[in-house]
Amino acid sequence: MYEVYTPGHGLVTDSLIMHGIVRLYNVEEVERVGDRYRIVGDFSKVRKDALSLLREELNIYFKNEDAISNSSILGKIKDANVNVAFTHKWMSYLRDALDRTNFGNLVSIFTPDHKDRAKEGRSKSESLYTLYLPLSHIHGKYSQYNYTLKNRQYMVCGACFSLANIGLIYGTAVIKKETKTNTNMSVTLLSIIPGAKMSKTDLLLAQRFVRGKFVDLRTELTVKATLLYALSIGETLFSFGKEDCKPQVLIWRLENVGGSQRSIQPMTFELGDLLKKIGKIKAEYPMFTKLVMELALTDEGALILDGLAEAIMFGYDEYHVLKEIVSLAQERDRDREKPKLSRGVIEGLSDLAKALISVRGY
Known about the structure:
The chain is α+β, with helices and mostly antiparallel strands. The protein has helices spanning 11-24, 48-63, 74-80, 87-100, 106-109, 114-117, 158-171, 200-211, 223-232, 272-284, 288-295, 299-314, 318-334, 343-347, 349-358; strands at residues 2-5, 26-33, 36-42, 121-123, 129-130, 142-145, 148-151, 153-156, 173-178, 184-194, 197-199, 214-217, 247-257, 260-270.
């Protein structure tokens, strides 16, 4: 067994690189070390099926760029990208980085001084690759050096770029709010990471949990409401989040408004207790997922969903949230143009109240 450390490009990029390594190699354990990861495993053999599939889809893309919309692999990158104009260049970079990287030599690549040795960071080097916004929360051409602005993108080597993309594909969930023009959109990305240590089993479970999650929202949700939405739809993992595992969910949001991009500072939340709360609520109030999805349909409901997220995550006043749900239901009954809350959702609110009270002490 060997150990490698992620390079230190910030928590978002290093988390994606970590998930890329977990996907390609026989990893036994991952330990969080600040914003970096210590990864223990056998790096002598690469899962060639994952690399072959990625290369095959890139070949299909360069023959027919529209095929990316139906791709389960490259489609994740497309969905996460808030700068659509750079899609072709991004795919070209990825193909080139994959071809230039010796994945069988990971231990020699990720030495403790890798970042300095590869001259990664703000650079104009033609041998490095631009770290696009979904792969990092660092954005902008300009950096300050000796009180002057330098026109330099954040650049990384082919191994970092390739593994970050593989981590984005297999280790994130994407929640997207998009307009018809592609010039105004927001994308929220979630990834499950170790708070301390995670085993191979838990890491693969984390990737399975997020990989198939893609949501195209009609309304703008707060980060907290987005997190609740993502964790409530589909399967809720009861076996995830053991005491010695302490998983966290890393969440970051990207926005493109009128062609101007920005990123919101990444946040982490303890995942184990939150999943237990949601699992218990869903067991006692089976209409919970439907309630969350119906609240997310309108701006008024989105505000209530944020309050519901705070009640679950932080133990805030659940009765105020329940009153707002009832008021919203009555308002929609009077307005035929707005979608109504389902009868089962409303009839079971007493069960929701009991469930919210029961998880308050978690």
